[in-house]
Structures are given as C-alpha cells and as structure tokens.
Amino acid sequence: MPAKLSVNLNAIAMLRNRRDLPWPDVRHFGRLALLAGAHGLTVHPRPDQRHIRFSDLPVLRALIDDEFPGAEFNMEGYPGEDFLALCEAIEPDQVTLVPDDPAQATSDHGWDFAAHGDLLRGVVQRLKRKGLRVSLFADGDGEAGAIEKAKATGADRIELYTGPYGGCYDAPEKAEVQLDLLGRTADAAHALGMGVNGGHDLTVTNLPALARRIPYLAEVSIGHGLTADALEFGMAETVRRFRHACGEPV
User: Fold this and answer.
1) Which of 5, 46, 98, 240 would bridge with 137, disulfide CB 3.0–4.6 Å?
2) Is 4-245 a CATH 3.40.50.300 domain?
3) Active-site residue, selected from the candidate residues 72, 76, 159, 219
4) Over pLDDT 90: what percentage of the chain?
C-alpha cells in the first residue's frame, strides 16, 4: 500500500504571519489539500507561534471532523507541558514527538533514545491514555540498537528524519548512501512491529526511491517542498503530484 501523504501547513502559516491579515488562509489550503486526496494534515505549533498558531488547531481539527472524517490530523512538537496540554485538548489522530529546542528554525535531528528513554516512556504513556497514536522522530542512521530503545518507550511508530537524504539533491551517489541508511533503520523498526513514517526535505524527485526502498512506509509528512511546488502548480495539482510520487494511482 502506498505511503499516505500528510500535508504540513507550517510554511503557509508562516507566510500568513508576515502580515496582520488572515491570508493565506491555513484552513482554506488545508481544505484544498484534502479535496485533492491528501490523507491528512500536519502542524508543528511552536511556543512562539511563528507559523501555526494555537488558534489554528481547533479550526483544523473541526475541518477534518466535519468535512473529511477519514483524514488524519498530526501534531508534532517537543513534549513540554504546554504542547502536551494542547494535544490532550485537540486530540489529534497522531502525535509526533521531536527533540527540538524551541529556538530551532526547523527539526534537524532525531531523538537520542538512550538519553531520553525515561522522558519518552512517560510522555508516550500519557498520550496513549488519551487514545492517541504516538510517533518518535528518529535519525535514519541504520542503527538498529537505537530503534530497539525507541520501541521500549511504547511508541507506535518512528518518523525517519529524511533531511540528510533530501540534502543530497545534487549528489546522487551520496543520496544512495543515505537511502541505504534510511532503509536499514526502517527495516529495524518494521521487524520490531513499529510503523514507519518519514519527513523532511522530501520532494516529488526523491520520494519514489524512498517508497521503493521502504514499501511498508506508512506516511510521509511534507511541507517545505510541497509548498514550494504549490507556488508553481497550485495546491491541488501539487498534492496529486506528491501522491503519485508516493506510488498512489492518481
């Protein structure tokens, strides 16, 4: 089954926030993405609200509940108390936990599962008591031992940090090396019964190879590259292009 596409709306929200105006409308673009066949929406509400605002969360949750009940809402963030309280209030279908410092521009590494195992176990248990699926951001470095520690937290999935792979857009040989590491990490998680998601710097060019190497890839969350393409092709056509790149008949 092809990986499901979740459209990350952060870049659209960041563009909106350049002015004290309500456009581009995050809800509107989320709706366009879902109408074009996206399987879900992703947001990363950071403490400074520099892109997604806390006020966007109930609006997007209602959009899915009222108009697209088969779609999923994925909230990602560092598991501080404020973020966890938001998750408990909004009840997304999936929570993706990332080890970001609040000041970071974007996610750029996975969890150190050995160092943060106790923290993550407690957070995972708390979220699962609310019936939420939990995914952990993981480096795609081929280390099976790290994934065993991720499994021990009780999380349902990992999300492969695909940034190093995406960064090889002009170096095919290096991309092959990164793809192999991602595949080995995914295989370790799959063998342990964990689901595998992916995200960061994925494009219509590099997605097909990733999907072939990891045929059980459950979901990809894509924002920057998808938003850049939407400036050229429009949101609906861009979603169709990314779905096709995932291997989905369009």
Assistant:
1) 98
2) no
3) 76
4) 94
